[in-house]
């Protein structure tokens, strides 16, 4: 698995504000949206394109346009929803599929509770969005889901990752075409499976505490 930690002062600046426990939900949503747009620029570096002939007002020329089938963006509900608009801003012609996953806070095991994805992902480039890569359980399950449907390559965009999560994901997807783009690689997981220093529960900070 290729791991890219995007090193840019604007990303670090926005992540610092995002991590701050005093940042409001509306501020958090705005920062997550801005951050994903910055990360998406790096995440789409290998998006497939095809040659395309056009005529400018001055001369004919060859350019490129996005190839078919169009890329598929897959936000992992709930927290990944906070990254969808920012990604679509950069890839407006992409399609979106949804995967709802919840991590059991005792066992830390993920389970899928909702799915709305094309049945056949053959040849599709997929972009998975989830702000947090903690143990890696949720991302690994999501990537396996997409490969089982025929996806050929998957790029995951996460705001924060842990070394444990990166290691587990690297082992689980060995031999597959997977890229992980991170805003930052944090220090470790704590005994509750939370990223340290992290930002807390991303879903709760975006949308409020779920019952
Ligand atoms: C969070 C986060 C990831 C997962 C990461 O979701 O958005 O999906 O935890 O943890 P892992 O790497 O250990 O699997 P959560 O299950 O809290 O659901 P939510 O987005 O609905 O809050
Ligand atoms: N999920 C979160 O939202 N935050 C963490 O730190 C770990 C899992």
From TrEMBL:
* Major enzyme class: transferase
As recorded in UniProt, its EC number(s) are 2.4.2.9
Pathway(s) served: Pyrimidine metabolism; UMP biosynthesis via salvage pathway; UMP from uracil: step 1/1
Query: In what residue span(s) does the Phosphoribosyltransferase domain sit?
Result: 5-208
Keywords attached to this Swiss-Prot or TrEMBL record, sorted alphabetically, are: Allosteric enzyme, Glycosyltransferase, GTP-binding, Magnesium, Nucleotide-binding, Transferase
**Per UniProt, what is one GO molecular function of this protein?**
uracil phosphoribosyltransferase activity
Q: Which Pfam families match?
A: UPRTase (PF14681)
Q: Per the entry, which co-factors are needed?
A: Mg(2+)
GO biological process annotation, one example: UMP salvage
Gene Ontology cellular component annotations, sorted alphabetically: cytoplasm
Q: Matching InterPro entries, A to Z?
A: PRTase-like, PRTase_dom, Upp_B, UPRT, UPRTase/APRTase
Membership in a protein family: Belongs to the UPRTase family.
Protein name according to UniProt: uracil phosphoribosyltransferase
Recall the taxonomic lineage recorded for the source organism: unclassified sequences, metagenomes, ecological metagenomes
């Amino acid at each position: 698995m290729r791991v890219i930690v995007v090193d840019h002062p604007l990303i670090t600046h926005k992540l610092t504000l995002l991590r701050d426990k005093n940042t409001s939900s509306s501020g958090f949503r705005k920062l997550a949206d801005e951050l994903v747009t910055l990360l998406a620029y790096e995440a789409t570096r290998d998006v497939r394109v095809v040659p395309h002939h056009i005529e400018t007002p001055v001369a004919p020329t060859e350019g490129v346009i996005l190839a078919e089938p169009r890329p598929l963006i897959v936000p992992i509900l709930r927290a990944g929803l906070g990254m969808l608009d920012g990604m679509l801003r950069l890839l407006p012609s992409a399609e979106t599929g949804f995967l709802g996953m919840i991590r059991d806070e005792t066992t830390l095991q993920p389970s899928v509770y909702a799915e709305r994805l094309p049945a056949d992902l053959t040849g599709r480039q997929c972009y998975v969005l989830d702000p947090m890569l903690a143990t890696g359980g949720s991302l690994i399950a999501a990537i396996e889901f997409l490969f089982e449907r025929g996806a050929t390559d998957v790029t995951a965009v996460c705001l924060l990752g842990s070394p444990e999560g990166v290691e587990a994901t690297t082992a689980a997807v060995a031999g597959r075409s997977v890229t992980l783009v991170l805003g930052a690689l944090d220090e470790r997981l704590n005994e509750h499976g939370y990223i340290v220093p992290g930002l807390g529960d991303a879903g709760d900070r975006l949308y409020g505490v779920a019952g």
